Amino acid sequence: MLQKTLSLNLPGSHDDHGASNTVLGFWLYLMTDCIIFASLFAVFAVTGNQFAGGPSGKDVFELPGVMMETAILLLSSITFGFGMLAAHKGKSTALLAWLGVTFVLGAVFIALEIHELSLLIAQGYGPERSAFLSAFFTLVGTQGLHVTVGLIWMTILAVQVIGNKKVTQRDLTRLTCLSLFWHFLDIVWICVFTFVYLTSVV
Amino acid sequence: MAHVHSIDTGASHGSVGSYVIDFIFSVVLTVAAFGVVTQQLMGPTESIIAIAVLAFIQILVHLVFFLHMNTSLLQRWNVVAFGFTSMVAVIVIEGTLWVLNSVGPTT
């Protein structure tokens, strides 16, 4: 994956291996995260039509809202990508600006998700209503929790870059891990909107 | 060593172009998926197959353009880990569906 990018500023340095191992290790963590999501998708696939007399996906899902969330998350992936390009060039101001934009997009995504889920709970369609809603809340909630952790992580990295007044090699390693995390969450979201929202509405 | 690195780094963290290409691909694929469902162009089964294929393509595009996955030597372990994980994920999901659809009286 991205470990080779980290050798950018230190040709032949011994840190090279340290950085590449860090990113490979983080990649392996993401793979285990993949298994968590695979399990949650399996649960949803099995219980997605167990409504217990409650509403089905067709009754409760609002596609325009999902479309909005999808667009925002996709946009945040490309803005983070631009931030990484700036980071590799050592442009800390541009990096911080792109991180700021990404953070706002991620925060709006989370706000929309919380709004959607709290609206369901207010209507009496909380996770306790049926197996379908339990699986739905767990899957979407887990993805949302990951995005929230990503936002906290992003804030910490931004503070570190501001403190260092430049993009250090260590910052670059950490940013690379976060960018993998962020793009990974976008991939999870593709599966969520496809296999949870769209297949329920079909 | 340093020389090899300087060549590799150019391609590995993408460029404005590769991000924009991925973004355009993703927008087209996402709009297509939502379009298939909202416009009800096909029957339910065909629609689900169509959006699953669109999702699969979009994931591949993301892996290549956003996550910069490729077949180079340096990426070998990432790709091996990813391949193994994909296999486990398929077994978990397909296996669960297969077993649970076979045990119950329903479906």
Give the tags.
A: 202 residues; mainly alpha; Four Helix Bundle (Hemerythrin (Met), subunit A); 80% helix; 0% strand; elongated; disordered N terminus; B: 4 helices; Cytochrome_c_oxidase_bac_sub4 (chain B); electron transport (chain B); membrane (chain B); Cyt_o_ubiqinol_oxidase_su4 (chain B)
Tell me the strand percentage band of chain B. under 5%
- Number of E-state strands of chain A: 0
Q: Write down how many β-strands of chain B occur, each being a DSSP E stretch of 2 or more residues.
A: 0
Range of helix content of chain A: over 70%
The total count of helices of chain A amounts to 6
Order of helices and strands of chain A: HHHHHH
Transmembrane segments (chain B): 20-42, 48-67, 79-100
Subunit structure (chain B): Heterooctamer of two A chains, two B chains, two C chains and two D chains.
Membrane topology (chain B): Multi-pass membrane protein
Family (chain B): Belongs to the cytochrome c oxidase bacterial subunit 4 family.
Topology record:
The complex is a heterodimer of chains A (202) and B (107).
Chain A: H1 15-47, H2 57-60, H3 63-88, H4 92-122, H5 131-164, H6 169-201
Helix pairs in contact in A: 1-5, 1-6, 3-4, 3-6, 4-5, 5-6
Chain B: H1 2-12, H2 16-38, H3 44-65, H4 76-103
Helix pairs in contact in B: 2-3
Overview of the structural elements:
The complex is a heterodimer of chains A (202) and B (107). Chain A is an all-alpha fold. Chain A has a single domain, classed as Up-down Bundle (Four Helix Bundle (Hemerythrin (Met), subunit A)), CATH 1.20.120. Chain A is 80% helix and 0% strand. Chain A has six helices and no strands. In chain A, α3 runs antiparallel to α6 and α5 runs antiparallel to α6. Chain A is elongated, with a radius of gyration of 19 Å. Chain A starts with 14 loop residues before the first helix and ends with a helix. In chain B, α2 runs antiparallel to α3. Chain B is an all-alpha fold and 107 residues long. Helix content of chain B is 79%, strand content 0%. The longest helix of chain B has 28 residues. Chain B has two domains: 70 residues; 37 residues. Chains A and B meet through α1, α3 and α6 of A and α1, α2, α3 and α4 of B. Chain B: This is Cytochrome bo(3) ubiquinol oxidase subunit 4. Chain B: Belongs to the cytochrome c oxidase bacterial subunit 4 family. Chain B: It is a multi-pass membrane protein. Chain B: InterPro entries: Cyt_c_oxidase_su4_prok, Cyt_o_ubiqinol_oxidase_su4, Cytochrome_c_oxidase_bac_sub4. Chain B: It is found in: Cell membrane.
